[in-house]
Each structure stands twice: as C-alpha cells, then as structure tokens.
Amino acid sequence: MFPASSIWLLIILAFATALLPFLTERAFAFVPWKQQGEPDRNGLFYFLRALLSYLVVGAGCYLLSRPAVDSLMQVIAVVLIVAGVYFPGQVMAKSLKVKTFFNRLIEVTVFFFVVAAVGFALEAYYTNPIAQGWEFWAIFACLYIVLAYPGFVYRHLLRHPKKHEHA
C-alpha cells in the first residue's frame, strides 16, 4: 500500500465510522447507564461494563498507535478493537430497540479514537511519528464531526414517515 492510498483508506474509514452510529440501531459501545429493555441490575454493573469496554478498545487503540510495535501486537490490537466494538452489539441486540442521542454520541467518540489509532499506526508504518499539539486534535475533531453530520441529519432532523404513522 502506498502512502497516498493509505490516506484515502483513512478518510473512507473516518467517514464510515462517523456515519455508522446514526445509520443503525445496533450498539457499538456500552454506555454507563441502564438502557430501555435491559434487565434490572445494580447501577454499578452498567458503569463497570462500559468502563471495561472502553478499556479494551482503548488498549487496542494504544497498542495500534505505538510506533515500534511488531506484527503480533498489531494483530492483538486489531482483535481488541474489533471485540470491543462487536461485543456490545451482540449483548444489546435483543434488548435495545432505539438508541438515544447520547448513545450515538458515545459511539462517535469511541470511533473517533479508533480512527486516530489507525492513523497513528499508518504514520508509524511509513515514517517516524510526529507529536501532535492541541491544534491537530481540534481540527481532527471538527472534521470528524462534519463527517458525522449527514448521519445526524438523517437520523434526527429528517422526518421518517413509517415511524410517525398512526394506525
């Protein structure tokens, strides 16, 4: 893969992950509170479950963003990220009917850090990583929000006639 094609891969990945929480009701991240349809448990359970999920995805992102990581560690990082993103949907598939705006916001935030980790991994593959200041993070966050905006408009601002019909 050439550097130019890897940049396009990163842009496509960012666009897809920014839209994904708005285009589906499948959960991609745990939230630290009880959602509609979940069984009643102690409030601490939901917080710890979300924290564990964030730690797994965070560990995968951290491993993937390290410059001197061997192939085995990269595979482990990808497995951690995929498991951390796939597992909540499997657990919540039967109980979650409609995600709230805050659920979608948490998912967009988790995907933001996943895309950042993939970007750092690609940068480390081609060259020595450069330390980024707050300006980089501000611009990256704004661009990611702009990429998520079409999904937000589709989910929250457009009228969906099938959902609003009264029988």
Automatic annotation (TrEMBL):
Q: What parts of the sequence cross the membrane?
A: 6-23, 44-65, 71-89, 101-122, 134-154
Record keywords: Membrane, Transmembrane, Transmembrane helix
* Keyword Transmembrane in record: yes
- InterPro entries attached here? UCP019883
- Superkingdom per UniProt: Bacteria
Protein name as it appears in the record: DUF2818 family protein
